[in-house]
Design goal:
heterodimer, A: 257 residues, alpha/beta, Rossmann fold, 6-stranded mixed beta sheet, B: 345 residues, mainly alpha, ABC transporter involved in vitamin B12 uptake, BtuC, 14 helices, globular
């Protein structure tokens, strides 16, 4: 039960954005995707989410080819938190969170909806935002609401065996320190509950501290994937990011300024 | 399970405010319909009609003139309001109105083609009654498809882009109608002019039936799209990540909006601004969720056009104003106000 990409290549308008990238997200695992601008991080998320069809290679959700799954089936397996979304009309924050509910609309699942909202609103500390319109929120507040919506999509009753996956593209952008830490801790708690997580981050220290595995992308290729201490070597990072980077292993600290 | 949670009902149900708003709209629309059935150049006492002691003249005016006319204006209003709401949702553009973006003009061109060229082919009256809405619906669908291609898959291009396309489409359609006007003979010209003024006059039951069918089908097709339209407001990619099949949603909305607008235009000509004003008013009263907005816009559109038609035929009795004149008189200042407000955002 994994989400896997095997030898995936993405070519758009003759430009090769991803080339021969393979990775596997196991339940309960956090994989951080790092790399310089234009390395193909967002393309990788989009391909794994099913937004774009790979030119080569195959992406599997559990044992099924992603291309054969319906949109609803995909939505039941994985949830995506993208970089930014604007909304034209004045939806309330509660409306936006409810949009994440893909588990059906009647009977048992409608009853679970209420429990899911209360739990997630509390975990994300957004109770004071609930009554407001989404468009009146600041950028950081909007991201917190989108995070809550992504969690709604993954919500399962306690003890249910369904595995689910969360894909995040720079979830900590626009967040202040406190909310950044809260979000990262929440990701660790989700992983402990068996949710597989793939996140794109810029901050190498966050990747080193919170991820089980790091995937280093450079010009569309997977340079290296593995445990943080193996992937994050001063020599490799300096080469990929093209600035001198030093690493203090105890505690693991990556310095570039 | 926490069933007492105040948010628990939010998934399916309308808020109290939305329920009240819909109820208010139903009452207002029914009241407008009752007044519109009773008044005109010849006043009818509904009370006498109910008690069964109305005169034969009163009864026949009521059955053959008033009821079809009020029904028609209500249905046309409902379909314009609903299509406006659905297109504004599909295009994620608060200015998407069937009239402004050229959909009504496409339908009008289709209908004009049949009015002028249709007499060349000897079609029976029954078939003719179906041919006109079919041609208008095809015209409307063609324009929506063109808009779809021009905006590269309804990608959000900013509000003005689509209006510019609408200007071009409106101009093209009026060239077509102009040519048709030029080549038409006297009888065709008379029915073309009468029809293009936008009026509910002269409607009869046999004319009403085909359009009524098309509009009902459109209303029924639109209803299940409410949640998908809500999700679409997050963007097409985001909606598909949440399980919406964007292609199917698009076809559903395009087909039903084209059917509703085309059938309306074939019966009553071009009536502007209803699809623009109505969804905005309905959003102001009760909020933006489509499960409320779609039925609300249908109701408010019906009420608005029934009232506008009542004004059109009572303001300068015994003469009659084109109803399109009244909706434009209300709609164009409203349009200006919307543009003014958007400028400040």
């Amino acid at each position: 039960m994994t989400i896997s990409a095997a030898a995936v290549a993405v070519e758009i308008d003759g430009k090769c954005l991803l080339n021969d990238v393979s990775l596997c997200i196991e339940p309960g695992q956090i994989i951080a995707v790092v790399g310089p601008n234009g390395a193909g991080k967002s393309t990788l998320i989009a391909a794994i989410a099913g937004d774009i069809t790979p030119t080569e290679g195959i992406i599997r959700y559990h044992d099924s080819d992603l291309q054969t799954l319906s949109f609803l089936d995909r939505a039941a397996i994985r949830s995506v938190m993208a970089q930014s979304q604007s909304v034209v009309y004045d939806f309330s924050v509660l409306d936006i969170i409810a949009m994440g509910w893909v588990r059906g609309r009647d009977g048992e699942s409608a009853r679970q909806f209420g429990a899911a909202v209360s739990a997630i609103v509390e975990e994300c500390a957004i109770a004071e935002l609930l009554g407001r319109t989404f468009n009146s929120l600041s950028g950081g507040e909007q991201r917190r609401v989108h995070f809550a919506r992504a969690l709604m999509q993954l919500w399962r009753p306690r003890g249910s065996a369904n595995s689910a996956y969360l894909l995040l593209d720079e979830p900590t952008a626009n967040l202040d320190l406190a909310h950044e830490v809260r979000l990262l801790k929440k990701l660790m708690a989700l992983a402990a509950d068996g949710i597989g997580i793939l996140l794109v981050v810029h901050d190498l220290n966050i990747a080193a501290k919170f991820a089980d595995k790091i995937a280093l992308l450079h010009s569309g290729r997977m340079t290296c994937i593995g445990a943080p201490k193996d992937v994050l070597t001063a020599e490799r990072l300096s080469k990929v990011f093209e600035i001198p980077i030093s690493i203090d292993p105890n505690p693991l600290t990556i310095k570039y300024y | 399970m926490n069933t007492s949670n105040p948010q628990a009902g939010h998934l399916n149900a309308l808020t109290t405010r939305q329920t009240r708003a819909l109820f208010g709209l139903i009452v207002t629309t029914l009241a407008a319909a009752a007044v519109a059935c009773a008044s005109g150049s010849f006043d009818i006492s509904l009370w006498a009609l109910l008690k069964g002691n109305a005169s034969a003249l009163e009864q026949s005016v009521f059955n053959q003139i008033r009821v079809p006319r009020v029904l028609l204006s209500g249905l046309v209003g409902a379909s314009l309001g609903l299509s406006g709401a659905a297109l504004q949702g599909l295009f994620r553009n608060p200015l998407a109105d069937p009239g402004l973006i050229g959909v009504s003009a496409g339908a009008a061109l289709g209908a004009a083609l049949i009015i002028v060229l249709g007499s060349q082919f000897a079609v029976g009256a029954t078939l003719g009654a179906f041919l006109l809405p079919v041609a208008a619906i095809s015209g409307a669908a063609l324009v929506i498809l063109l808009l779809y291609i021009m905006t590269r898959g309804f990608g959000y291009q900013g509000v003005t882009y689509m209006l510019l396309v609408g200007i071009a489409v409106n101009a093209l359609a009026s060239v077509g109608i102009g040519v048709l006007t030029y080549i038409s003979d006297d009888a065709e010209l008379r029915s073309l002019t009468f029809w293009s003024m936008g009026s509910f006059g002269g409607v009869t039951w046999p004319l009403l039936v085909p359009a009524l069918l098309a509009i009902t089908v459109a209303l029924l097709m639109m209803a299940p799209a409410a949640r998908a339209l809500d999700l679409l407001q997050l963007g097409e990619v985001e909606a598909s990540r949440l399980g919406v099949d964007i292609v199917r949603l698009r076809y559903r909305v395009i087909f039903s909006a084209a059917a509703a607008v085309g059938a309306s235009v074939s019966l009553s000509g071009m009536i502007g601004f209803v699809g623009l004003i109505v969804p905005h008013l309905v959003r102001l009263i009760g909020g933006v969720n489509h499960r409320y907005l779609l039925p609300g816009s249908a109701l408010a559109g019906a009420g608005l056009l029934i009232s506008a038609d009542l004004l059109a035929r009572t303001l300068i009795q015994p003469a009659e104003l084109p109803v399109g004149l009244i909706t434009s008189a209300v709609g164009s200042p409203f349009f200006l106000w919307l543009i003014f407000r958007m400028q400040k955002l």
